[in-house]
Write a structure and sequence with these properties.
It contains 6 helices and 16 strands. By secondary structure, it is α+β, with helices and mostly antiparallel strands. The strands form 4 sheets. Strands 7, 8, 9, 10, 13, 14, 15 and 16 form an 8-stranded mixed β-sheet that branches. A 4-stranded antiparallel β-sheet has the order 3-2-5-6. The protein has a two-stranded antiparallel ribbon with strand order 1-4. It is elongated and about 65 Å long.
Length: 240
């Protein structure tokens, strides 16, 4: 058991700073046994080391380090999802503040667009990218097809899972918004997965836009624009 820090910050103060309500409301959360520190129920008056202690409310981890940041970026076409690029192409990290240093969560292909999170929170990154947590990603996908759209037989193949060179995909949620425009929801993150899925059923992708990550949506962000996530948004993404 780690000793309680003598000179740490009061837990209710930390929770209030992270948007859980007034200090009195946060004290009530602690008194109700809904807050843990390092896996153990917290007591009122507990002090925490924000650089070291793991705090959770109702079992959901709370990022209490003051240097943690969370950006939501609308990645434009022809921007690469990496920290550095040997070919001198524009990267996603160049579109957000340079300090503190952040990393993209997962990836979007060079020729894909849409929402991507950049953060320095390693725990949340693991939660959002590891397939065992099943975090959904939703895409609007424009494909080549006839005037009547993609036939139901192809849609059903995508829903059941299709054979790729790295194995069969998990079942996907697939709908046709209008002829040739599909809404596809997956929880895996293989390389160019949605494009390869569509190719596998005979419909090449013309345009792909990620519109949702877990609970997170934002139709107001234009390509190249970013904003900070709210505390509530971060907490909702961390729910297991």
């Amino acid at each position: 058991m780690n000793p309680e820090p003598v000179d740490g910050e009061r837990l209710q103060k930390v929770l209030a700073q992270r948007g859980f309500g007034s200090r009195r409301v946060c004290e009530e959360l602690i008194e109700q046994g809904r807050v843990t520190v390092n896996g153990e129920p917290a007591q009122l008056g507990r002090r925490v080391d924000v650089q070291r202690d793991a705090v959770a409310v109702d079992g959901v981890a709370v990022g209490v380090r003051p240097d943690l940041v969370y950006y939501l970026l609308h990645k434009p076409y022809n921007v690469i999802t990496t920290v550095k690029d040997t070919h001198d192409r524009v990267t996603v990290v160049e579109l957000v503040p340079s300090e503190p240093r952040v990393f993209p969560v997962g990836r979007l292909d060079l020729d894909s667009e849409g929402l991507i999170i950049l953060t320095n929170d390693g725990e949340l990154t693991h939660h959002l990218t590891h397939p065992s947590f099943g975090v959904e990603k939703e895409y609007l996908v424009h494909v080549r097809c006839g005037p009547d759209g993609v036939p139901e037989t192809a849609l059903n193949k995508l829903r059941r899972g299709v054979e790729l060179d790295d194995g069969i995909t998990s079942p996907a949620k697939v709908g046709q918004v209008q002829p040739g425009v599909l809404r596809i929801v997956i929880h895996e993150g293989r390389h160019r997965q949605v494009r390869r899925m569509c190719d596998a059923v005979g419909h090449e992708v013309n345009r792909l836009v990620r519109t949702r990550i877990g609970t997170l949506v934002d139709a107001t962000l234009k390509p190249g624009e970013w904003r900070l996530l709210t505390t509530q948004e971060v907490r909702s993404l961390a729910v297991r």
